[in-house]
């Protein structure tokens, strides 16, 4: 999955640098990518936000935007990436996502339904999440100073009270977390490859 994401991003016009946040013991597997002058490595942290901060610190000082992507989402399309980059350029921060389709229930004990949540206002967020580096650094400073924990990257911008643009993505940009997800992801990639060959 990671190879696929690396190939995708390195093949996009305008990508001047790619920081792979990965433990040093696994970097040998990515030696062919390291030969690309745009690719550098950064150490992972204890939490996601620590890993993102490490990657941000390894970015070039003149980077216009930082595009943070999970290797567990290999199905994102170039069109989605360009859309969310464009929205971040215009608004400072943007995140790919889709409106929630399923009925969502809230429970306070994990045993019984507390209430049904109005899904018309809910979005499932994906990656990439794209942010102007100066805003992300400012957000990280606030998070560190106040001892906050954030579950995704644009939450850091939310902590600053700044807007985050929702960029409509595709439902196929699923997060591969189970063996069943891998089967579905493989089918989607096979269908795309067959369509591209025709």
What would you say this structure looks like, in words?
It contains 7 helices and 8 strands. The strands form 3 sheets. The protein has a 4-stranded mixed sheet. A two-stranded parallel ribbon has the order 1-2. It is 38% helix and 19% strand. The two termini are 24 Å apart. It has 198 residues and is of the alpha/beta class.
Percentage of residues in strands? 15-25%
N-C termini distance: 24 Å
The amount of helix comes to 25-40%
Question: Helix segment count?
Answer: 7
Question: Which key phrases capture this entry?
Answer:
single chain; 4-stranded mixed β-sheet; alpha/beta; 198 residues; 8 strands; two-stranded parallel sheet
List the helices and strands and how they pair.
Layout: H1 2-10, E1 18-21, H2 31-34, E2 39-42, H3 48-57, E3 66-68, H4 78-91, E4 93-99, E5 104-106, E6 115-117, E7 123-131, H5 133-146, H6 154-159, E8 165-168, H7 179-197
Parallel strand pairs: 1-2, 4-8
Antiparallel strand pairs: 3-7, 4-7, 5-6
Short synopsis of the structure:
This protein is α/β, with parallel strands linked by helices and 198 residues long. It has helices at 2-10, 31-34, 48-57, 78-91, 133-146, 154-159, 179-197; strands at residues 18-21, 39-42, 66-68, 93-99, 104-106, 115-117, 123-131, 165-168.
């Amino acid at each position: 999955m990671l190879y696929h994401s690396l190939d995708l991003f390195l093949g996009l016009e305008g990508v001047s640098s790619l920081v792979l946040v990965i433990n040093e013991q696994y970097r040998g597997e990515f030696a062919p990518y390291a030969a690309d002058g745009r690719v550098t490595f950064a150490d992972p942290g204890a939490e996601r936000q620590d890993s993102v901060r490490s990657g941000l610190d390894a970015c070039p000082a003149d980077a216009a935007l930082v595009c943070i992507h999970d290797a567990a989402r290999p199905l994102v399309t170039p069109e989605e990436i360009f859309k969310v980059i464009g929205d971040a350029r215009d608004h400072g921060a943007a995140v790919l996502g889709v409106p929630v389709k399923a009925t969502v229930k809230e429970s306070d004990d994990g045993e019984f339904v507390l209430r049904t949540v109005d899904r018309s206002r809910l979005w499932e967020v994906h990656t990439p999440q794209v942010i102007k580096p100066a805003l992300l650094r400012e957000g990280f400073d606030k998070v560190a100073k106040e001892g906050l924990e954030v579950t995704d990257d644009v939450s850091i911008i939310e902590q600053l009270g700044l807007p985050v643009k929702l960029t409509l993505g595709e439902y196929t940009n699923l997060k591969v977390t189970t063996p069943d997800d891998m089967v579905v992801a493989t089918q989607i990639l096979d269908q795309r490859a067959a369509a591209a060959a025709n």
